[in-house]
Specification:
Blueprint (H helix, E strand, L loop, with lengths): L9 H10 L4 H25 L4 H25 L9 H11 L2
Amino acid sequence: MGAASYLLGFITGIIFLLVEKESKFVRFHAMQSTILFGGIFIANIALGFVPILGWIAGLLISLGSFVLWIVLMWKAFQGEMYKVPYVGDLAEQQLAKMK
């Protein structure tokens, strides 16, 4: 179930945060997905307003986030509580506040 938190980026992350109340594993991956891919989504929108360099940067971020998306889904599918540097710690802090 943790891997499904990444399936549609921050959208499925939010859905799993609202639906799953028991599994710390699923909630961690859902929160990490929401923070990470929500931030990437906002950054790509902002970069879209910057001609040429912003578009190139947005493309590079999108390619990198695609690779990260695959890796995170694979790690979660394997049952690993993989933390993206900084984002994973932030996800844990936010989950602790939600108790």
